[in-house]
């Protein structure tokens, strides 16, 4: 298990940055088992601007 931060370009929230894209730094936790892994990311709720979310990304290592 490892933890870190990711930088994401986010778009589609009309109440944030006048609906234009913006950069966000989000926490991520990664779990890896041999060739399979999962990333867990949390997007926090910002009152009256955007709803929070939990993102799950599945990974498959195809070569060494």
Describe the structure.
- The protein is an all-beta fold.
- It has one domain (2-60).
- The chain contains no helices and 4 strands.
- The chain has strands at residues 2-10, 22-33, 36-43, 53-60.
- A 4-stranded antiparallel β-sheet has the order 1-2-3-4, with no helix packed on it.
- The protein is elongated, with a radius of gyration of 14 Å.
- It starts with a strand and ends with a strand.
Compute the number of helices: 0
Determine the mean pLDDT.
Answer: 89
Strand content: over 45%
What ranges have pLDDT less than 50 throughout 5 or more consecutive residues?
none
> What is the topology, as strand order, of the major beta sheet?
1-2-3-4
Largest sheet: 4 strands, antiparallel
Cα radius of gyration in angstroms: 14 Å
- Please give the number of β-strands: 4
Q: Which descriptor suits the 3D outline?
A: elongated
* Helix amount: under 10%
Helical/strand content category? mainly beta
Q: How do the SSEs run, as a string of H and E?
A: EEEE
Amino-to-carboxy terminus distance: 19 Å
Tally of domains: 1
Summarize this structure as a short list of keywords or feature phrases.
single chain, 64 residues, 4 strands, elongated, 0% helix
How are the secondary structure elements laid out?
Layout: E1 2-10, E2 22-33, E3 36-43, E4 53-60
């Amino acid at each position: 298990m490892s933890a870190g931060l990711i930088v994401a370009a986010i778009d589609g929230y009309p109440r944030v940055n006048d609906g234009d894209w913006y950069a966000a730094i989000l926490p991520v936790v990664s779990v890896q088992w041999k060739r399979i892994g999962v990333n867990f990311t949390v997007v926090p709720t910002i009152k009256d601007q955007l709803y929070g979310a939990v993102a799950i990304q599945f990974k498959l290592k195809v070569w060494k």
